[in-house]
């Protein structure tokens, strides 16, 4: 049976949209967001090189620590917050269930 995971995108303060994705296809959170029509360029194709898939985690389960490559990319971005992550570096697994995030502004 396919396990689905639910994440919530805060589109405006107090306004969250639930999106649901499969955990058995090896997708990243970036790919799920793109599949749900969010405007993410992902020009590097998920290699932690472009920064256009930048999100901010607002609440939910603890995630694995970012890799050195992810951290280096995040630190090069003009805006970074404590919850900043590259959504291409986050695998869609059941551990993400209940994650709340928002898209960070694109500055490139
Ligand atoms: S898609 Fe380029 S850094 Fe994530």
Describe the structure in your own words.
This protein has a single domain (4-103), classed as Roll (Ubiquitin-like (UB roll)), CATH 3.10.20.30. A hairpin with a 2-residue loop joins β1 (4-12) and β2. 26% of the residues are buried. The model has no long low-confidence stretch (mean pLDDT 95). It has a five-stranded mixed beta sheet. With 108 residues, the protein is of the alpha+beta class. Helix content is 15%, strand content 29%. It is globular, with a radius of gyration of 13 Å. Its cofactor is [2Fe-2S] cluster. This is 2Fe-2S iron-sulfur cluster binding domain-containing protein. InterPro entries: 2Fe-2S_ferredoxin-like_sf (IPR036010), 2Fe-2S_ferredoxin-type (IPR001041), Adrenodoxin-like (IPR001055), Beta-grasp_dom_sf (IPR012675).
Category by helix and strand content: alpha+beta
Q: What is the CATH class name?
A: Alpha Beta
Strands, count: 5
User: How many domains make up the coordinates?
Assistant: 1
Largest β-sheet summary: 5 strands, mixed
| Poorly predicted runs | none
The CATH homologous superfamily: Beta-grasp domain
Residues in helix, %: 10-25%
> Strand order of the main beta sheet, please?
2-1-5-3-4
Looking at the structure, what is the overall shape? globular
CATH topology: Ubiquitin-like (UB roll)
Tell me the β content: 25-35%
Radius of gyration: 13 Å
Mean pLDDT: 95
What's the N-to-C terminus distance? 41 Å
List each distinct ligand once: FE2/S2 (inorganic) cluster
Number of helices: 2
Order of helices and strands: EEHEHEE
Looking at the overall shape, the CATH architecture is Roll
